[in-house]
Write a structure and sequence with these properties.
heterodimer, A: mainly beta, Immunoglobulin-like, six-stranded mixed sheet, B: Immunoglobulin-like, globular
């Protein structure tokens, strides 16, 4: 069955340190992966998608089909990066999104 | 401005009451979704729609029902609320196509006492 795993519920790093939020997926079809972010008191919004291969707010994520991973990385964390981050897998069969449990990222000053 | 709206933002009601959570989008999207999310947990899909007169149940069993009479409107109804329905409910919409993102409303936090 399809599944998205975010092993860390909470990740706390100092400002300026590198950040890596892990995401692993299980899916037999053609995966389409996304990272969504929810800042305090704001709605859930898209951060980036693997198909675009883009860098948003300094974050990047590479789809590794061999390791079935889509880890989110940023070389130098900033305090405004503190938020909840969700990894999501879109199924090519019915376009539904399967969500990870989320990782709360706290950037310490 | 194109957006997706949910009302109310917060609702506290008594057990046994009938409630309807409203969701409207002005983006012209065909696909709409309802998710249930407990604090700090993943989103669970409870209903979705591919367009007018299309409604499907999601992965999470829910006692709620939905309707899609108009493209922009996707209300969720609980006929008889129970404390176990206490949760946050998120509405979202999206277009078809690879790489398209889901746009979310602000959510409705429901408490059944």
């Amino acid at each position: 069955a399809q599944r998205v795993t975010q092993p860390e519920k909470l990740l706390s790093v100092f400002k300026g340190a590198p950040v890596e939020l892990k995401c692993n997926y299980s899916y037999s079809g053609s995966p389409e992966l996304f990272w969504y972010v929810q800042y305090s008191r704001q709605r859930l919004q898209l951060l980036l998608r693997h198909i675009s291969r883009e860098s948003i707010k300094g974050f990047t994520a590479d789809l590794n089909k061999g390791e079935t991973s889509f880890h989110l990385k940023k070389p130098f964390a900033q305090e405004e990066d503190s938020a909840m981050y969700y990894c999501a897998l879109r199924l090519d069969s019915n376009y539904q999104l399967i969500w990870g449990a989320g990782t709360k990222l706290i950037i310490k000053p | 401005e194109a957006d997706i709206y949910q009302t109310p933002r917060y609702l506290v009601i008594g057990t046994g009451k009938k409630i309807t959570l409203e969701c409207s989008q002005t983006m012209g999207h065909d696909k709409m979704y309802w998710y249930q999310q407990d604090p700090g947990m993943e989103l669970h899909l409870i209903h979705y729609s591919y367009g007018v007169n299309s409604t499907e149940k999601g992965d999470l069993s829910s006692e709620s029902t939905v309707s899609r009479i108009r493209t922009e409107h996707f209300p969720l109804t609980l006929e008889s609320a129970r404390p176990s329905h206490t949760s946050q409910y998120l509405c979202a919409s999206s277009e078809w196509g690879q790489g398209t993102e889901a746009f979310f409303g602000q959510g409705t936090r429901l408490t059944v006492v």
